[in-house]
Amino acid sequence: MNSEVYAEFSLTGIDLNPEDVTSKVGVQPTKTWFKDELISPKARIRYQQNGWKLRSRLEASDDLGEHFQVVLEQLKQGWQPLIELCSIYEAEFCGVIYTSGDRPAIHFDRDILKAVLQLNAEIGVDLYVLPPE
User: Which of 14, 18, 81, 117 is most buried, with most CB under 10 Å away?
Assistant: First the structure.
C-alpha cells in the first residue's frame, strides 16, 4: 500500500449553526453535524459540539501540503466571513496519513502557515502506520 493522505478544515462550537456557516462562507461543506448526533452508525460516541467540515478534493496519493493548499483554495471565496467565524468558533486543519511504511512528506509552506494563522486555527496531523500487506 502506498500512502493515503487527505486534509480537512473544520469549524466547531456549541452554538454554531452549520447552515449559517455555509451561507456566510458560500462553500458547500463535505459534512455537517449537530451536538449529540452519533459520530457514525456503528459508534456509540456522540458529537460534543455542532460542526462544519470541508475535505480536500485531491486524490489520496497527493502529498499533505498539496491537500492543505486545495482546502485553503476552496475556502478563499468566503475568506473574510470565515475569518470572523473563526474568531468565534474553534477552527482546525487536520491532515490524515495512512501508510504501510512509506515516509510521506509532512511540510507546510509559509503561505499555508500564514493562512492558518489568519484563521486562528490549529493544525493536527494523524499518522497511522499499518502493517505491510
Answer: 18
